[in-house]
Design brief:
- The protein is 26% helix and 20% strand.
- The protein has helices at 2-8, 66-74, 116-119, 126-143, 167-178, and strands at residues 12-15, 34-35, 45-46, 48-49, 62-63, 81-85, 90-94, 100-101, 109-112, 120-121, 147-152, 185-188.
- Strands 3-9-6-7-5 form a 5-stranded antiparallel β-sheet, with helices on one face. Strands 1-11-12 form a 3-stranded parallel β-sheet, with helices on one face.
- Strand 11 (147-152), helix 5 (167-178) and strand 12 (185-188) form a beta-alpha-beta unit.
- The longest helix is centred in the C-terminal third of the chain and has 18 residues, at 126-143.
- The chain is elongated, with a radius of gyration of 21 Å.
- The protein starts with a helix and ends in an 8-residue tail after the last strand.
Amino acid sequence: MKEIIADFGSDHVWQCDAFFANGSSWGEPTPRVSLKDACVWTPKIANTYLAGVPGGSGRCPSYGTLPEAQSACATTPNCGGVTSRANATRFELRAGRKPVKVPVTADEDSYVLQNPLGCKQLPADPVWAARGKAAWDAIARADGDTARWIYQGYALKIAGQFGAVSPVALSRLRGLHESVPKGQFILLDMESDGSG
């Protein structure tokens, strides 16, 4: 207990994370994004395509010019790049970031977004901000100003053993974090192998 008080300034520490894990029955809303830094793109990677649809299903959004498609990609969560098709008359948003080789006759080229998390500033997900506020209000009713909320980021599958950083997960985490008074939300993460 002395170590908890020394580390967190209170013996009123709550760990609430499992209920808010990815894939909960509360749905997975897509956050809106706005640009933060300039997006960096690879030059054309000839005779390749990028796999996957941003959002996971449906048709790839398509644009008439490369700049239009790149601008749309920069504001679309989980967009990893653009694939041009049909003699560069159609530019499709794609989720993947690893170019896949195709024959020259396929007439596809790719442009990979190199800094997706650097050029997309993800706002707080409003649904998760509401969840965070509800959880914090309950914690604060019990412990007042001395309460601290510890949240393990792995529950949102932010990164690490789960693969690439997810913009949706970061938006959700920001929603939780911004719903709690400054200094009372503690993000705790550890390695999957227990090393840290």
